[in-house]
Amino acid sequence: MPVTRFLTLGSEGFGVYEPEEGLPPGSWKRVEAPADAVLCPGFVDIHIHGALGIDTMTASPEEFVSLCDWLAEQGYERWLPTTVCCKADAALSVAERLPEHPMIAGFHLEGPFLSPKFPGAQPESEIAPPPAFDDPAWCPVFRHPKLKIVTLAPEREGALPLISALAKRGVAVSMGHTDATFDEASRGFSAGLRSATHTFNAMRGLHHREPGALGFALFEEGLCAELIYDRKHVSPEAASILLKCKRPDKVIAVSDSSPATGLQEGTALTLWGNQAEVIDGRVRLVGTNTLAGSTSTLLDAFRNLGADFGLEVAISLASTNPRRLLGLEGPPGVLLTFGLDLSLKEIAHPT
After folding, report:
1. Confidence label for 83 from pLDDT (cuts 50, 70 and 90)
2. Per-residue pLDDT tens over the stretch 152-197
3. pLDDT value at position 24?
4. Minimal CA–CA distance to 177: which of 146, 206, 156, 149?
């Protein structure tokens, strides 16, 4: 019986591997031979607002399970349902409605502690200043065992002590929807900030005299950087700059998928109090150029990254780097087999 040789990231780095007898991934050996297929760990998406018309803000436990079923077909192993700006009771409601499901790794609180200058498609009326960690309304959210990531604007008054308290709790704090200067972002990093939410999008840009939040994200080696790579949020050239500036393990592909993902072209829908429409593969607020999340999955991002930057980058950004950020240990529970043309051939669950 012929042995399939896979192009993948193995114990000796990126290369071609073939399984030894017994098949566990750790026992595969690297070989000098052409690859027959591509092997990739299951995708881990740390930033997703929904799909198929289902909104994580209002989804029932049954709808969350439906999303898990659909995302599993796209090659997902884990994901973080992500909120938009809301009051504490609404955020807590999302956390309490999350089913105990092996694909749901917790939740990502995006806002409401953002900059009013960079709301994106977030409900602007819900943007609020950061509270104290022990604020009676927000403390149950901040202490919730399923809280994994918080996106906030580090320049806002009260942000630094909140960053520090969340970081001590083991929550990954990310700067996003931010008008932070380079110095303000740096102070956030000193307080415990460890990533940048959808880098380039909804943040102060780089200027040669004031590098801003984007400049800090590109400059600081210890900071992870999310990247929405649907080729619509960020151009290939800008993505290339990010990948040249950051260490290979510090960029994380995210979908920022919205409830519009999986819906037909021309569909009109209401997103977080805004009227939106699906046009040319994008979801935009009606009458504006503002993107309201994306209509893509990490499967789309993986294929785009593989085609534009190579498979080593694609596997790192869509699988291994987000797994590391969330502290997911042990071998992946999902293995994806692609043809060399990046067509998805098989989804296996070795455990």
Report:
1. very high
2. 999 999 999 999 999 999 999 999 999 999 999 999 999 999 999 9
3. 55
4. 156
Over residues 289-318, the mean pLDDT reads 95
The H-or-E segment that residue 93 falls in is: helix 88-97
Active site residues: 256
φ and ψ at residue 99, rounded to 5 degrees = -75, 160
Q: Long-range contacts made by residues 261-270, C-beta under 8 angstroms, separation at least 24?
A: 261/50, 261/51, 261/52, 261/294, 261/295, 261/296, 261/297, 262/51, 262/52, 262/53, 262/70, 262/295, 263/52, 263/53, 263/295, 269/53
Quick check: pTM over 0.85?
Answer: yes
pLDDT score of 12 more than 90: no
- From residue 13, how far is each of 7, 17, 116 by CA, in Å? 11, 10, 44
The string of DSSP codes covering 213-225 is HHHHHHH-TT-EE
Q: Which two tokens stand for residue 142?
A: 């901040």
Residues 323 and 79 sit within 8 Å (Cβ to Cβ) = no
Q: Which amino acid is at 271?
A: L
Tokens of 298: 């990490």
Integer Cα distance of 125 and 138 in angstroms: 18
In this structure, the chain runs to a length of: 351
